[in-house]
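Postdoc handover notes: sequence design on the structure in folder B. Input tokens:
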């Protein structure tokens, strides 16, 4: 199914949802914001937050682990080098929209302390995604490519898992040094990703408290 077809299908389901919830258009306005604008901003916030949260959960705790356990290591690394820039771009854009929408609905001057904290969590998630996108990801990809070159000389990298790398590093000081540097950069990238995920997780608790099912 083409991308435009999938997008059109999602819009169609959204339109059906509006038909099944017509009372939202008769809700009271919030200050100077019209009901339709208010609902649209809240929808943008909800969809962008849910997208960032869902993508982060999948990539961090499920998809990446499954790929590492089943793909040859160099193939896994090359796939990650293409996927992570798109991943951090998507999460960053979604966090930016979610933060902007939340800030519009809850202006800083009139926001409660809890609302200011939530805006801070969303902005921090956005910031950590940007740090990963523009700092740690390029460094990680560059070091990965250099390490792949050395590993090909050692005739390793087509296996699943990192056991052959560890064995080769015992007799190859250059590979051992690369492993150490790669591990440090990758660790900082993972930490930044977890900080972004943590900000989204704290906001999810806030949103759950606002539900009235």
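Designed sequence:
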């Amino acid at each position: 199914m083409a991308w435009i077809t999938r997008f059109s299908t999602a819009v169609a389901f959204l339109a059906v949802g509006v038909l099944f919830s017509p009372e939202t258009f008769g809700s009271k306005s919030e200050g100077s914001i019209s009901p339709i604008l208010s609902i649209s901003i809240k929808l943008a916030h909800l969809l962008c937050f849910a997208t960032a949260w869902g993508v982060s959960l999948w990539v961090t705790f499920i998809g990446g682990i499954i790929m590492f356990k089943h793909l040859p290591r160099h193939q896994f690394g090359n796939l990650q080098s293409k996927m992570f820039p798109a991943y951090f771009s998507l999460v960053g854009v979604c966090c930016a929209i979610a933060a902007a929408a939340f800030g519009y609905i809850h202006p800083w001057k009139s926001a409660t302390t809890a609302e200011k904290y939530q805006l801070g969590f969303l902005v921090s998630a956005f910031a950590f995604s940007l740090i990963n996108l523009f700092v740690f990801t390029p460094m990680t990809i560059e070091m990965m490519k250099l390490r792949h070159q050395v590993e090909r000389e050692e005739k390793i990298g087509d296996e699943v898992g990192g056991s052959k790398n560890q064995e080769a590093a015992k007799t190859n000081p250059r590979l051992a040094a690369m492993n150490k540097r790669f591990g440090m950069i990758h660790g900082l990238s993972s930490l930044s990703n977890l900080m972004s995920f943590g900000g989204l997780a704290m906001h999810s608790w806030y949103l759950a408290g606002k539900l009235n099912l």
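Context for whoever picks this up: DSSP finds six helices and no strands in the chain. Don't rerun without checking with the PI first.
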